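Reviewers of the previous submission asked for a worked example of the structure-prediction workflow described in the proposal, so we include one complete record here. The input consisted solely of the amino acid sequence. No template or homolog information was supplied to the procedure at any stage.
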Amino acid sequence: MRISKLEAARQQLDTAIWLYFNRDAPVSVHTLTAAAYEVIRGVNQNANGPPMIVKDCFAEVMKPEHQKMFYIKVNEAANFFKHADRDASNNIEFEPRQTEFLLIDAVCQYSLLARAYTNRFWLFYVWYAFDNPHLCSLTEEQKRTFPVNADFVKGMTRFDYYSLVLPMIEAKTLNDGRT
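From that input alone, the workflow returned the following structure tokens.
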């Protein structure tokens, strides 16, 4: 089986999004997201793409003396979840919400690099916009394209949103002639 770096990242993100909406598995979601993020970031840098938000843009605006600590903190959970050589008996205080920042950044950058997005990417992207209206918003075209609005989603659990809205997206994708 031959697979490209972007395809590997796509599969990791699709699985992370499925877990995000369907299971209470924040460590697995973070681990998959962080791995995909690093692959996408490397491909993006190799393609001279625009900087990614979390690990590039944030670092650019920090004072140089704080950048090292920033990278340590932003990578802390991912490193803790995949290594035990120096800290096998330690614990970590993990905030699952930080995964969403990596996930939205990775989904957006993947979509730019691949010039495509999966139905799950689209589902997460809109969930994130609806759940974080103080951080981002949808364009008018995106609002017209998406099968539901923020009022419809308000108060839904992630699982209910996934279960109800993904089939709508898939049906619209088929009707629009995309796969």
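The two ends are 22 Å apart (CA to CA). We consider this example representative of the routine output the project will generate in years two and three.
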